[in-house]
């Protein structure tokens, strides 16, 4: 039987939770988070490692990079990294189905390709970094150009989940692009049996609209009513689809960075949409996503529209 054309590949039963690993402490935390998530979702976990032989060829010269003395150690190291990650995953969830993929590809390209059919892709991030440069090119490329949902695992460097039992928090900016984030946030809250907190910031005036009018055309005395109405409108259909999810709505004058950053101190997951439409990584990730993957105290999920 042919699947319907509108079927979401990220929600198919065959869609795995994918995690990238490079053997670092932060990627170990991402593996553990991904293993817990895959077990909870009853999905397969795929652990991926890219050797980046093209990068090695560029650095060493094409001939030297193909020498067994160069390729062999890279493959052995990659196999060791994957074996270690598999053991970590099984420590967290002994019954979990785990597969691995060792590829010659660049890690970012590998994970972006896998994201096309993944339920989600997870990567680790170093806590407390101050600039995007410290987050790494792989993380930025996947979060910006990946398909579906990419999770930057923060606040779980000890191997324990950040804020277990906390709510799932979704940033609602009022834009059509943000609809995908709302859909994923409801699904995550339902799967985790968690409260969903929907947060909308007044200061994001350039994105939303109410009743066909721009915000600045609405009398200031009616602004609060318009903001609450916008949030209710965006959530209405999803609340009907997920009646098991308890939803709390929060409208605030504070900007989305500060507001979602504060909620990350209590949340088990922050969900935001990718708002960019251009070809640059920063624009594709969006300013709020940029800020959160640097500063949040819990995992951050960036959702791209299908």
Explain what this protein looks like in three dimensions.
This protein is 42% helix and 18% strand. The protein is α/β, with parallel strands linked by helices and 306 residues long. Helix 7 links the parallel strand 6 and strand 7. The longest helix has 25 residues. The N terminus is likely disordered.
Radius of gyration: 20 Å
Give the N-terminus to C-terminus distance in angstroms.
23 Å
- Overall average residue pLDDT: 82
- The structure class reads alpha/beta
**Overall geometry:** elongated
Count of discrete alpha- or pi-helical segments spanning 4 or more residues: 11
| Number of distinct beta strands | 12
- Percent of sequence in beta strands: 15-25%
What helical percentage do the residues reach? Answer: 40-55%
Strand order in space, largest sheet = 3-2-1-4-5-12-11-6-7-10
Give the helices and strands as they follow along the chain.
EHEHHHEHEHEEHEEEHEHEHHE
What profile does the largest beta sheet have? 10 strands, mixed
Q: Which stretches are poorly predicted, pLDDT < 50 over at least 5 residues?
A: 1-5, 128-135, 204-212, 276-284
């Amino acid at each position: 039987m042919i699947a319907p054309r509108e079927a979401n590949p990220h929600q198919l039963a065959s869609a795995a939770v994918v995690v990238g690993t490079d053997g670092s402490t932060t990627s170990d935390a991402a593996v553990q988070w991904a293993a817990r998530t895959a077990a909870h979702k009853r999905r397969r976990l795929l652990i991926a490692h890219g050797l980046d032989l093209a990068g090695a060829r560029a650095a060493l010269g094409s001939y030297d990079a193909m020498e067994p003395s160069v390729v062999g150690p890279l493959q052995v190291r990659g196999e060791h990294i994957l074996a270690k990650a598999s053991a970590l995953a099984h420590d967290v969830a002994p019954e979990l189905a785990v597969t691995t993929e060792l590829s010659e590809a660049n890690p970012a390209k590998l994970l972006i390709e896998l994201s096309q059919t993944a339920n989600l892709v997870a990567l680790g991030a170093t806590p407390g970094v101050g600039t995007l440069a410290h987050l790494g090119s792989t993380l930025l490329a996947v979060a910006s150009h990946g398909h579906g949902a990419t999770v930057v695992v923060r606040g779980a460097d000890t191997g324990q989940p950040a804020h277990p039992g906390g709510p799932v928090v979704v940033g609602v900016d009022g834009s059509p692009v943000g609809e995908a984030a709302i859909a994923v946030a409801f699904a995550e809250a339902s799967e985790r049996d968690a409260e969903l907190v929907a947060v909308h910031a007044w200061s994001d005036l350039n994105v939303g609209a109410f009743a066909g009018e721009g915000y600045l055309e609405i009398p200031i005395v009616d602004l609060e009513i318009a903001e609450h109405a916008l949030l209710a409108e965006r959530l209405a259909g999803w609340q009907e689809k997920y009646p098991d999810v308890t939803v709390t709505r929060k409208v605030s004058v504070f900007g989305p960075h500060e507001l979602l950053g504060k909620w990350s101190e209590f949340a088990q997951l922050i969900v935001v949409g990718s708002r960019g439409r251009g070809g640059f990584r920063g624009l594709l990730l969006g300013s709020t996503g940029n800020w959160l993957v640097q500063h949040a105290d819990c995992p951050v999920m960036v959702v791209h529209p299908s």
